[in-house]
Each structure stands twice: as structure tokens, then as C-alpha cells.
């Protein structure tokens, strides 16, 4: 029996499920929208609320103003902290600047912050696995700067030094590749056999689920497309995971218009997913783009159910405009 030539096989798309918004991103985006509805524009947001170009541009049109630092916000205004979390010094900057604040930090990031504070109080050396310069890493490190040192992959392990090898714990950025993180952990355990693991997984459920789905797609696809922004760590890791799982090619795009038709040459099966900060409208646009080029058969590849939701920041239940005005009068 002869194999069907690739050019005559039916073109199809394997669509990952779950994909797109996680509970923390959904909470953060809704928090900005609710704040604009309740208090009116402008609502200032320190850094991008989530790492997605489309989301940021959409919220800007509604009246959100994104700033690099809380110190840029005029006194008497409202500033929101992004889903990635901030260090205690940033809260203090907002207080000194006479700003009302809304903390939209993802609860799973807050969990890591609390772990850092607890282990620092117990005088542990904390090895934070993550990417240097990422907002989440900066925020977590700021919770216990005298106890935390960053480990940016297995190659960093050789230079790690601790005070007492029997009192060392590792924590991690929530959006990393699970496999790469465990490779770093294994290297750390080899150097520090008494290394303690965090009480529960730091890498968030949504990151893990999206990586699992990508692995499933990669085993069946000729090409994987991940919708997400270049500064989105979890989206970048999905591309890495797809390539490590053996797919011939994988690319990250913000919009369908960024897809290069040359990528489709000889491709009959396209795997498609999106990062945890990506609205599904962008995935639907890619599906439409692919359909116009003959990829009309869409098959859902489901690897997990997600039902977790988080309540909105408690600050939205207060009159923050009045609070901000009162701060200026003090």
C-alpha cells in the first residue's frame, strides 16, 4: 500500500484546548474594564496589564494609560498593578505619590510572593528560577531581596552559592517551561542535595495545561502556530515546547497578518494554540486566514478541562476616586 502524497492529503488544523486566557489574565483584564466603568478614565496601569499587544491597545482605546513606573502617575489618581505582581517598594511609591491602588496581581503569583516572604523569615536562601528582567521575577525578588538569588536556567547553577546547604529552597516564575524548570531543579539538587521544594507547584496550572496540549499537537502536526506576543513568557515557552516535542517548525505571531505563507509549503496539518494572555478573537482570525488557504477541517485536541475563576480585586468595591482625592488633601 503506497502512502498518500502530502500534496493530496486533506489540509487540517488541530486546535488546542485549553488555550488562551487563564483565570489570572481574565481577572486582570476585567479589573481594568470594571475600573474604567466605575471610576471613568483615566485609569493608570503600571506596566502592561498582561503581555499582549492587542489587549493593551484595546484597553488604551477605552481610557487606560500604561506607564512604566507608579511615580509617573499624577497625585490623586488611580493606578492598577499588573497581573505579574510588584515588589513592596512599588506599593510604597504609590503611597508616597498619593495614589489609590488596585492590585490585579494573579493570585498564583501572590502565592509565590507569600512563599518567598515565609522562607525569608525562616532565614532560608531562596533560589528563584526565572528569566532575568521579567516583571514577575522582579516583583518576587523584591519581597525578600536579601534572601533571593535568580537562577536563569541550568547553566546558572554552577555560580550559585548559599550560606547553609541544609537551608535552601527553590521557587519559580509561574510561566516557565515545566521541563526546563525541572532540568534546572535537578541540577540544583545535584549541587545541593538537601534542597527543599515549594509546598505546591509554582508553575501555574494554565501554563502546564497549554504546554501539555502543545506537546500533543506537535506529535501530529507539520507546523505549529502559537498566537501570542513576543514579551509573553508563557507564549514563548509554548513555541519552545513544540520544537522540543519534534514538530518541524513552530512560530509565534500576534496576528494572522504576521503568518508567512511560505511556512505552509508542504504542510497538511497545522497545530494552533495561544498563550494565556491571548483573547480568542485572535485565534479565530488565524483560523479564518488558514481556511482561506484550504485548511477548513478543524479538529479540537482537548487535553484538560479548566474551570478555575478568581474573584475581582477587592479594591473595586470601594470609591477609589474619593479616596484618591482625599490623599491629595492630606
UniProtKB/TrEMBL annotation:
Cofactor(s) it depends on: [4Fe-4S] cluster
EC nos: 1.17.7.4
InterPro entries: LytB/IspH
Location of the active site: 136
Keyword Protein biosynthesis tagged: no
Residues annotated for (2E)-4-hydroxy-3-methylbut-2-enyl diphosphate binding in this entry: 51, 84, 134, 174, 232-234, 277
Entry's cofactor comment: Binds 1 [4Fe-4S] cluster per subunit.
Residues binding [4Fe-4S] cluster: 22, 106, 204
Keywords tagged on the record: 4Fe-4S, Iron, Iron-sulfur, Isoprene biosynthesis, Metal-binding, Oxidoreductase
Transmembrane regions listed in the UniProt entry: none
Pathway: Isoprenoid biosynthesis; dimethylallyl diphosphate biosynthesis; dimethylallyl diphosphate from (2E)-4-hydroxy-3-methylbutenyl diphosphate: step 1/1; Isoprenoid biosynthesis; isopentenyl diphosphate biosynthesis via DXP pathway; isopentenyl diphosphate from 1-deoxy-D-xylulose 5-phosphate: step 6/6
Residues that coordinate or bind isopentenyl diphosphate: 51, 84, 134, 232-234, 277
Residue runs in coiled coils: none
UniProt xrefs under CDD domains: lytB_ispH
Entry superkingdom: Bacteria
Positions contributing to dimethylallyl diphosphate binding: 51, 84, 134, 232-234, 277
Catalytic activity: isopentenyl diphosphate + 2 oxidized [2Fe-2S]-[ferredoxin] + H2O = (2E)-4-hydroxy-3-methylbut-2-enyl diphosphate + 2 reduced [2Fe-2S]-[ferredoxin] + 2 H(+); dimethylallyl diphosphate + 2 oxidized [2Fe-2S]-[ferredoxin] + H2O = (2E)-4-hydroxy-3-methylbut-2-enyl diphosphate + 2 reduced [2Fe-2S]-[ferredoxin] + 2 H(+)
NCBIfam families the UniProt entry points to: ispH_lytB, PRK01045.1-2, PRK01045.1-3, PRK01045.1-4
Function: Catalyzes the conversion of 1-hydroxy-2-methyl-2-(E)-butenyl 4-diphosphate (HMBPP) into a mixture of isopentenyl diphosphate (IPP) and dimethylallyl diphosphate (DMAPP). Acts in the terminal step of the DOXP/MEP pathway for isoprenoid precursor biosynthesis.
Similarity annotation: Belongs to the IspH family.
Protein known as: 4-hydroxy-3-methylbut-2-enyl diphosphate reductase
Organism: Streptomyces gulbargensis
Name of encoding gene: ispH
Amino acid at each position: 500500500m503506497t502512502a498518500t502524497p502530502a500534496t493530496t492529503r486533506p489540509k487540517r488544523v488541530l486546535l488546542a484546548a485549553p488555550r488562551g486566557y487563564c483565570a489570572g489574565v481574565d481577572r486582570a483584564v476585567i479589573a481594568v474594564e470594571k475600573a474604567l466603568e466605575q471610576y471613568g478614565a483615566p485609569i493608570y496601569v503600571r506596566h502592561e496589564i498582561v503581555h499582549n499587544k492587542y489587549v493593551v491597545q484595546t484597553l488604551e482605546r477605552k481610557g487606560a494609560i500604561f506607564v512604566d513606573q507608579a511615580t509617573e502617575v499624577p497625585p490623586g489618581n488611580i493606578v492598577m498593578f499588573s497581573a505579574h505582581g510588584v515588589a513592596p517598594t512599588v506599593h510604597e511609591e504609590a503611597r508616597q505619590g498619593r495614589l489609590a491602588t488596585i492590585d490585579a496581581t494573579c493570585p498564583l503569583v501572590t502565592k509565590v510572593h507569600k512563599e518567598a516572604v515565609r522562607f525569608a523569615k525562616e532565614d532560608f536562601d531562596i533560589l528563584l528560577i526565572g528569566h532575568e528582567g521579567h516583571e514577575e521575577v522582579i516583583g518576587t525578588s523584591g519581597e525578600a531581596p536579601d534572601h533571593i538569588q535568580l537562577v536563569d536556567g541550568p547553566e546558572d547553577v554552577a555560580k550559585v552559592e548559599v550560606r547553609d546547604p541544609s537551608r535552601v529552597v527553590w521557587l519559580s516564575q509561574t510561566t516557565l517551561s515545566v521541563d526546563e524548570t525541572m532540568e534546572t531543579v535537578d541540577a540544583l539538587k545535584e549541587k545541593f542535595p538537601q534542597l527543599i521544594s515549594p509546598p505546591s507547584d509554582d508553575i501555574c496550572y494554565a501554563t502546564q495545561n497549554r504546554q501539555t496540549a502543545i506537546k500533543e499537537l506537535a506529535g501530529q502536526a507539520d507546523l505549529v502556530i502559537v498566537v501570542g506576543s513576543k514579551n509573553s513568557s508563557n507564549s514563548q515557552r509554548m513555541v519552545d515546547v513544540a520544537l522540543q516535542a519534534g514538530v518541524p517548525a513552530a512560530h509565534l505571531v500576534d496576528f494572522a497578518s504576521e503568518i508567512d505563507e511560505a511556512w505552509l509549503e508542504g504542510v497538511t496539518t497545522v497545530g494552533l494554540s495561544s498563550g494565556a494572555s491571548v483573547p480568542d478573537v485572535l485565534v479565530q482570525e488565524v483560523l479564518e486566514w488558514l481556511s482561506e488557504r484550504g485548511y477548513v477541517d478543524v479538529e479540537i485536541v482537548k487535553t484538560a478541562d479548566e474551570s478555575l475563576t478568581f474573584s475581582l480585586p477587592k479594591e473595586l468595591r470601594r470609591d477609589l476616586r474619593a479616596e484618591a482625592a482625599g490623599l491629595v488633601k492630606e
